[in-house]
Amino acid sequence: MTTPIQIKICGVTNSRDAKTCVELGAQMIGLNFYPQSPRYIEPKVARQIVEALPTHIDAVGVFVSGNADEIRRTANAATVDCVQLHGDFSPEVARELAREFRVIRVFSTHPQFRPEDVTLFPHCDVLLDAYHPELRGGTGKTCDWSAARATLRFSRFLILSGGLNAENVASAIKAVTPHAVDVCSGVESAPGVKDHRAIENFVVAVRKAEHVPDASSLQ
After folding, report:
1. Which residues pair with 26 in a beta bridge?
2. Can you list the alpha helix ranges (DSSP code H) found in 5-140?
3. Burial class (CB in 10 A: 0-12, 13-18, 19+), 206
4. 43-80: per-residue pLDDT in tens?
5. Is residue 17 among the annotated active site residues?
6. Which of 21, 47, 76, 192 could form a disulfide with 26, with the two C-beta atoms 3.0–4.6 Å apart?
7. Would residue 129 show up in a list of annotated catalytic residues for this protein?
8. Reduced to 3 DSSP states, what percent helix, strand and coil does the chain have, rounded to the nearest 5?
9. Which superfamily does CATH assign the domain made up of 6-218 to?
10. pLDDT tens digit string along 96-121?
11. Residue 218 has what pLDDT?
């Protein structure tokens, strides 16, 4: 792979963890604005975290519900430059938000998921996560890697999520060859509490995996 795989660490809840993530090699920091999540933070707390980050780091606001105005208001209050949309957001809402923000549209690899579904959101990057009937991310379950691989050709930028950790991320990268990987519970000692050693191990595993040929290049 010629372009380094980007690393997104989601569910960050404080500036110390955020700065450590960046120091260890993350390019994206996920800040959760879903009130029912144990990783939820107020926009004013998110703003403090964003202000502590280098300007080249993408701060990503994670949303599960809300209309474009509500999301815009929260994102601006938190000063995030990217919004991640879980749930039943329409292409129209995503398109409107894409005028102001980088938009990441989340899809879960449930049995009815089709890779071509992502083409309804041409203005968005794509994040693929595991399906769970109640939870929106942070499930610790891996998604369908074959479906993720098939989605590559339909997406401009693919982020692989779902149950990744230092032990399985190399296999995931080999199977999918994503542009970025997203980790949350796989680098935590408790929900919202990041394990700095686990983050370091995850980053090292990603960088090692970049130098291993994927299956398609060997054929």
Report:
1. none
2. 15-24, 43-51, 68-78, 91-98
3. buried
4. 999 999 999 999 999 999 999 988 999 999 999 999 99
5. no
6. 21
7. yes
8. 40, 20, 40
9. Aldolase class I (3.20.20.70)
10. 999 999 999 999 988 889 999 999 99
11. 38
Q: Model confidence over 3-48: pLDDT tens digits? A: 899 999 999 999 999 999 999 999 999 999 999 999 999 999 999 9
- Which of the following is catalytic: 58, 125, 129, 182? 129
Measure the CA–CA gap between 132 and 142, rounded to whole angstroms: 10
Residues in the chain: 219
Specify whether the CB–CB gap between 20 and 7 falls below 8 A.
Answer: no
What's the rounded mean pLDDT across residues 193-213? 92
Type of residue at 209:
A
User: For residues 175 and 137, what is the distance between their CA atoms, to the nearest angstrom?
Assistant: 21
> Which residue type, as a one-letter code, is found at position 22?
V
pLDDT the model gives residue 217: 45
Cβ-based burial of 17 (10 A; exposed 0-12, middle 13-18, buried ≥19): buried
Residue that has been written with the tokens 């202000």 in this structure: 51
Q: Token pair for residue 75?
A: 């994102």
SS3 16: helix
Residue in the structure block whose two tokens are 């203005």:
123
For the chain, the domains span 6-218
Give the span between the Cα atoms of 140 and 175, in whole angstroms: 18
Q: DSSP string spanning 158-218?
A: EEE-SS--TTTHHHHHHHH--SEEEESGGGEEETTEE-HHHHHHHHHHHHHHTTSPPGGGG
Catalytic residue selected from 10, 21, 82, 184: 10
